[in-house]
Amino acid sequence: MNQYSDDFLRFWKVYPKRVGKLAAYRAWQYTLKKGLADAEQIIEAAYIFVKTEQGRGDRQYIPHPSTWLNQGRYDDEYEADEGLSKAERLVLDAVRSQSSGDVRDPLVELLSICNGEG
Predict the structure, then answer these.
(1) Angle between helices 86-98 and 104-114 (to 10 degrees)
(2) How far apart (Å, rounded) are the C-alpha atoms in residues 25 and 91?
Protein backbone atom coordinates (compact mmCIF):
# COMPACT_ATOMS: atom_id res chain seq x y z
CA MET A 1 0.00 0.00 0.00
CA ASN A 2 1.30 3.43 -0.95
CA GLN A 3 1.40 5.80 2.01
CA TYR A 4 2.02 8.91 -0.11
CA SER A 5 -0.57 11.01 -1.92
CA ASP A 6 -0.49 11.25 -5.71
CA ASP A 7 0.23 14.99 -5.55
CA PHE A 8 3.19 14.41 -3.23
CA LEU A 9 4.55 11.75 -5.57
CA ARG A 10 4.34 14.27 -8.43
CA PHE A 11 6.35 16.71 -6.31
CA TRP A 12 8.84 13.97 -5.42
CA LYS A 13 9.44 13.18 -9.09
CA VAL A 14 10.12 16.83 -9.88
CA TYR A 15 12.32 17.76 -6.92
CA PRO A 16 16.04 17.37 -7.72
CA LYS A 17 17.22 15.82 -4.43
CA ARG A 18 15.24 12.76 -3.40
CA VAL A 19 16.25 12.14 0.22
CA GLY A 20 14.23 11.94 3.42
CA LYS A 21 10.97 10.99 1.73
CA LEU A 22 8.98 10.47 4.94
CA ALA A 23 10.19 13.78 6.43
CA ALA A 24 9.34 15.51 3.15
CA TYR A 25 5.87 13.98 3.16
CA ARG A 26 5.26 15.17 6.71
CA ALA A 27 6.36 18.70 5.71
CA TRP A 28 4.11 18.44 2.63
CA GLN A 29 1.10 17.44 4.74
CA TYR A 30 1.77 20.22 7.26
CA THR A 31 2.01 22.83 4.50
CA LEU A 32 -1.27 21.73 2.93
CA LYS A 33 -3.08 21.32 6.26
CA LYS A 34 -2.11 24.83 7.39
CA GLY A 35 -3.18 26.26 4.02
CA LEU A 36 0.27 27.75 3.42
CA ALA A 37 0.20 26.60 -0.21
CA ASP A 38 -1.71 24.19 -2.40
CA ALA A 39 -0.27 21.15 -4.16
CA GLU A 40 -0.14 22.77 -7.61
CA GLN A 41 1.67 25.83 -6.28
CA ILE A 42 4.32 23.66 -4.62
CA ILE A 43 4.80 21.41 -7.66
CA GLU A 44 5.05 24.41 -9.99
CA ALA A 45 7.60 26.12 -7.73
CA ALA A 46 9.63 22.90 -7.50
CA TYR A 47 9.62 22.60 -11.29
CA ILE A 48 10.87 26.16 -11.66
CA PHE A 49 13.43 25.64 -8.85
CA VAL A 50 14.89 22.68 -10.76
CA LYS A 51 15.68 25.06 -13.62
CA THR A 52 17.47 27.62 -11.46
CA GLU A 53 21.20 27.65 -10.92
CA GLN A 54 20.78 26.34 -7.36
CA GLY A 55 18.39 23.61 -8.43
CA ARG A 56 20.77 22.39 -11.13
CA GLY A 57 23.95 22.94 -9.14
CA ASP A 58 26.10 20.90 -6.80
CA ARG A 59 23.83 18.44 -4.96
CA GLN A 60 25.38 19.29 -1.61
CA TYR A 61 23.89 22.80 -1.86
CA ILE A 62 20.39 21.70 -2.88
CA PRO A 63 18.19 21.69 0.23
CA HIS A 64 16.52 18.47 1.28
CA PRO A 65 12.90 18.49 0.17
CA SER A 66 11.65 18.69 3.77
CA THR A 67 13.83 21.75 4.35
CA TRP A 68 12.64 23.34 1.11
CA LEU A 69 9.02 22.79 2.18
CA ASN A 70 9.47 23.79 5.84
CA GLN A 71 11.20 27.02 4.83
CA GLY A 72 8.36 27.90 2.47
CA ARG A 73 10.75 27.99 -0.49
CA TYR A 74 7.75 27.44 -2.80
CA ASP A 75 7.06 31.14 -2.14
CA ASP A 76 10.54 32.24 -3.25
CA GLU A 77 10.63 34.45 -6.31
CA TYR A 78 12.17 32.32 -9.01
CA GLU A 79 12.52 33.69 -12.48
CA ALA A 80 9.76 31.82 -14.28
CA ASP A 81 11.62 31.78 -17.59
CA GLU A 82 15.10 31.15 -16.18
CA GLY A 83 16.50 28.32 -18.24
CA LEU A 84 13.12 27.08 -19.48
CA SER A 85 12.81 26.02 -23.09
CA LYS A 86 9.56 26.59 -24.97
CA ALA A 87 8.66 22.93 -24.45
CA GLU A 88 9.31 23.19 -20.71
CA ARG A 89 7.15 26.32 -20.48
CA LEU A 90 4.36 24.38 -22.17
CA VAL A 91 4.73 21.53 -19.67
CA LEU A 92 4.56 24.11 -16.87
CA ASP A 93 1.42 25.58 -18.44
CA ALA A 94 -0.06 22.06 -18.52
CA VAL A 95 0.77 21.57 -14.83
CA ARG A 96 -0.85 24.91 -14.03
CA SER A 97 -4.01 24.04 -15.92
CA GLN A 98 -4.22 20.42 -14.76
CA SER A 99 -6.46 21.26 -11.84
CA SER A 100 -8.98 22.85 -14.19
CA GLY A 101 -8.83 19.85 -16.52
CA ASP A 102 -7.81 22.07 -19.43
CA VAL A 103 -4.46 20.55 -20.43
CA ARG A 104 -5.22 19.84 -24.06
CA ASP A 105 -3.92 23.03 -25.70
CA PRO A 106 -0.46 23.17 -24.04
CA LEU A 107 0.05 19.44 -24.57
CA VAL A 108 -1.00 19.58 -28.23
CA GLU A 109 1.48 22.40 -28.78
CA LEU A 110 4.17 20.46 -26.92
CA LEU A 111 3.58 17.41 -29.09
CA SER A 112 3.90 19.52 -32.23
CA ILE A 113 7.27 20.82 -30.97
CA CYS A 114 8.44 17.30 -30.18
CA ASN A 115 7.41 16.23 -33.68
CA GLY A 116 9.37 19.09 -35.23
CA GLU A 117 6.28 21.03 -36.25
CA GLY A 118 6.60 23.94 -33.83
Answers:
(1) 160
(2) 24
Residues 6+ apart with CB under 8 A from 22: none
3-class SS shares of the chain: helix, strand, coil, % to 5: 65, 0, 35
CB 64 within 8 A of CB 17: yes
Tell me the C-alpha distance between 82 and 36, whole Å.
Answer: 25
pLDDT tens-digit readout, 21-59: 999 999 999 999 999 999 999 998 998 898 888 888 888
Query: What residues contact 35, with CB distance under 8 A and at least 6 apart?
Result: none
pTM: 0.69
Phi, psi of 6 (to 5 degrees): -60, -40
